[in-house]
Amino acid sequence: MNDRIDDFNRLGAAGLAALDKEAGWSLNAAELAAAQKHFRKLGRPPTRGELETIAQTWSEHCKHKTFSGPVRFERGGKVKRYKNLFKETIVAATKTLNKSWCLSVFKDNAGVVEFGRGKKWGLAFKAETHNHPCALEPYGGAETGVGGVVRDILGVGLGAKPVLNTDFFCFGRQDSKMKLPPGALGAPRIMEGVVEGVRDYGNRMGIPTAAGGVVFDDGYMLNPLVFVGCAGLIPRDKIDKRVRPGDLIVAVGGRTGRDGIHGATFSSADIGSDSPSSAVQIGHAINEKKILDALLRARDKGLYSAVTDCGAGGFSSAIGELASECGAVVELDKAPLKDVSLEPWEIWVSESQERMVMSVPERNLPALKKIFAREECELAVLGRFNNSGRLLVRFKGAPVVDLRNDFLHGGVPNFEKLAVYKPRPVRARPPAKPRLPLGRLLKEILAHPNVRSRAPIVRQYDHEVQGGTVVKPFTGPAGYGPSDGAVIWPQAATRDLADFAGFAAAHGICPSVGRIDPCQMALYACDEAVRNLLCCGADITKAAFLDNFCAASPADPKVLGGLVLAAEGCKEAALGFGAPFISGKDSFYNQSSDAKGKPYPIPLTLLISAVAPVDDVRAAVTTSFKRAGNPVYLAGVTWRGLGGSIYNELEKSGNNALGVISIAESAKLYRGLLPAFRAGLVMAAHDVSDGGFAAAAAEMAFGGGLGADLCPETGYAQAGISQAELLFGESPSRILLEVDKEQELAFRSLAAGLPVERVGFVSDGHDLTLLDGGGRELLREDIAVLLECWSGGEA
Amino acid sequence: MKRPKVLVLRGAGTNCDIETCNAFTAAGGEPELVHAGELVEGVKKFADYAILALPGGFSYGDDISAGKILAVKLRTLKADLGKFIASRRPVIGICNGFQVLVKTGFLPHDRSGRQLATLAANDCGRNRATLSAVGAGSSATGHFIAKWERLKVNKLSPCLFTKGLPDEIELPIAHGEGKFITVPAEMAKIKRGNLCALSYVANPNGSMADLAGLTNPEGTVLGLMPHPERFFFPWQAQNRRPVAELGTTSLRLHRCRALCRPARAPTAAKAALIRPGADFLPPGYLFFKNAVDYAG
Prior knowledge:
The complex is a heterodimer of chains A (795) and B (296).
Chain A: H1 13-23, H2 29-42, H3 48-57, H4 60-63, E1 71-75, E2 78-82, H5 85-97, E3 102-104, E4 111-115, E5 121-129, H6 131-136, H7 138-154, E6 161-171, H8 187-205, E7 209-216, E8 225-235, E9 248-253, H9 263-266, H10 285-300, E10 306-309, H11 314-322, E11 328-331, H12 344-349, E12 355-360, H13 365-374, E13 379-385, E14 390-395, E15 398-404, H14 405-410, E16 417-421, H15 438-446, H16 455-458, E17 469-471, E18 474-475, E19 481-482, E20 486-488, H17 491-494, E21 502-509, H18 511-514, H19 518-535, E22 544-550, H20 557-577, E23 581-587, E24 591-593, E25 599-601, E26 605-614, E27 631-635, H21 646-650, H22 663-678, E28 682-687, H23 692-704, E29 707-710, H24 723-728, E30 735-739, H25 744-750, E31 756-763, E32 767-771, E33 777-782, H26 783-791
Parallel strand pairs in A: 1-16, 6-7, 11-14, 22-23, 29-32
Antiparallel strand pairs in A: 1-2, 3-4, 4-5, 5-8, 6-8, 9-12, 9-13, 10-12, 11-13, 14-15, 17-20, 18-19, 20-21, 21-26, 22-26, 24-25, 27-30, 27-31, 28-30, 29-31, 32-33
Helix pairs in contact in A: 5-20, 7-8, 7-10, 8-10, 10-13, 15-26, 19-20, 19-22, 20-22, 23-26
Chain B: E1 5-10, H1 17-26, E2 30-35, H2 36-40, E3 51-54, H3 68-73, H4 78-86, E4 91-94, H5 96-103, E5 117-120, E6 145-153, E7 168-175, E8 179-182, H6 184-192, E9 196-200, E10 211-215, E11 221-224, H7 248-255, H8 268-273, H9 283-295
Parallel strand pairs in B: 1-2, 1-3, 3-4, 4-11
Antiparallel strand pairs in B: 5-8, 6-7, 6-9, 9-10, 10-11
């Protein structure tokens, strides 16, 4: 064997740790010991390639050891133990719900649900993060993040056609005064790079980037979070894949180079000044577009039996994963290279982008080659799958790796981790009177980084390629109305112009709630996602969730404690809404340290991405006011509490209580409103979230270019509620609805028994006027002026 | 009537090919996706088709510059393409397809066959959509813009694709290199011949003469940056409900000094246009329908 590490089996714990650090594997002491034990038993030292393979396969990034491992959770003297946190919370909810329309959950590169007329299609959806690379190299990190999640969709089943990209970012405040450690990139530099990376890759792939958002918080200053998602359509009979022993191992796409060595292992550790920038891959979208075009043509001809993408860990994880149920012999010298000086183990673990691996029956090879040659996409046969139960990798005949599947995939030691939670003190006293006049407050709220228009980012994305973005990021006559989600009519995938089935995609995220209560954060986020789907006119009885958790080091029991609660919240929300989780991802070690070792952890963050079918895209709903004279209704109870609100950042209210959330009540409300949406009675709908009632009403006015006279005080507001809470509170589960005045009676009878009450009318005046319960004017502001605050003059 | 065969040309990085096909199908044509390589190898021939469409995308990643590499690849086919155009069969180049037509010297065109104009990186100075509005430092020049633009239709243009359109229409744009530049002599010819078939009401990219769509003197070739295939069906509209009721507020709102350009005020024509309903034909439909009717 070449590259043997002769003294590995003789090293002590300190020696192993030093070797690990030098090689950049991010293996812990128990894992190093398990590997050593294995090779001692074999009676031979390991090769570099074997240890690299183990490090990749066992990395947090690939294995999700924390989330799927045992946890001991302590809270207020009580102890709860989990054998597998993920399975006992999120997966358990999906199992309990057992929806027949879930076609593939948690086992493939993405979750798949039933879609379309005649249920001919599967809709695959996946979101993941590319946080660590974006902290080091924002443009490259974001590009390859998009490339990676698109390949997940290409690699689900036998390949789905991507029809929507989503993007969600958490950045430090752009105007922050925070002092950065030397070498760290500033917030504007990170944001600009990330936005440009998502733009340049997504646009070139010909996939609309349509549903997204941004949260600004200094907790993300050194560790930006970059969530990228992709949805695709797959014919129902192409969802299953199975590697057949005897099939050829075929690599397609870009060549292998030195870029992206140790991406998986580096993202399983904290970021420090010594983090290697060579761990970040380099993207080249055109190569992936060629794969897309060739792969889907080969799929439709049935030329291969399985496919997966080369993501973290490169060939080692792609081939390792495909061969995990059988076995494989790989000849690395057959791989096309960008750089011929690569060591064999480097070829094996390189994360060079735009590569996929297929399992191809030999008789199909000529036809496959023809298709890939037409698309000018490179193809190489790297070896053969077999029934050996082992992974044998050679370079010019010399072994590089020889490992048994059972050890590689089942040998990772896992031990119980400690999680603790200490509740934050909550002050529920009535808020202090606002310092600023109410009109001024509304303007400041609209101009707040977390509320203001996202047009400058969104307008750089081609959100309408494929001609199917029916609800676009901005709607209304002048395109000023921000949407709650995207509605996609995948005509470019189905090519069936008589099938009007589509789907909505939306998000929920509430890190400011998480600072107060992680379980509430999960409930709020799931609620927000479902509400956004409903506002687009989607059938929320068939909503499906993706979870994306981001946290600092799970070695900190407090971090893990928050995670346990958030995972329990996800389970509760999924069961309450009847909305299963179909896929997800977690990213840990989102923390940096400066030269003195001072840690900068991110706040616990959970992004919920959700999809639901829209039976007829022609009836999809937008947020923009449509017609003067139409009545406006507020659905949902307004609870007291200003915790986590934008208002609390601008005013010292002294109140950090959270509005009460009951998933059962929310689910009842949303399901109750669905018939009104279906009957076409709802002209516009917008969820009440950041900035509260006043901000939501203003945004509806921007879209429609119309005014409104509204009173937020309804019979469904909690007793003793203050003016500030009514106008700017962010009590969950509320929606503003514009109802067709001709059909108001029909709406009222459909909404009977629900907490829904008329709050006023759309007007053809210039102003947004908000009144108190007695009809007195609280504020009256010119819509054009509010729009200028919100858009910065650049809507 | 026979369904005319439409060659929808694709190559590496073509993105808008399928929706362009769908639009032709719905307009009564018989589209076929043909890879540039099939034409180069002679497996397929221009002569077998009645209409040619060059769809949008990033051909070959737009490496070097937008549409450049595909234009170079098509050089070997220049004579065939020239014959196709000379036979007055309709050719439409949308976005990247327009860039290819410009860079192959077919639009604008003279006997020399040289490239006479270019589509350069957007100049966003007049309509900035930079990150500064969300608080970042602005990168003011030349990035990709995706938004809806109002377009003036030149009623005097010989262009066959735009026949029957109202004075003003609305279509989405999505490009990074759409700023049309040409030499004064060529611009004079364009103006004289009414070859500028479509122009922007609020120029988003710095194009000379606000040019959004350019035709040849015969009116059979059209290159345009906006995407008619994205507003082919009523439910693809940015404004999803009737705006006939568009109140005075919105007029005032969009005229608001802070936001703008007086030109942004919606006109009666616009209000009349965007009325999604059963009998409403979006402007994109006519581009394809006109070509199919002409060829059929």
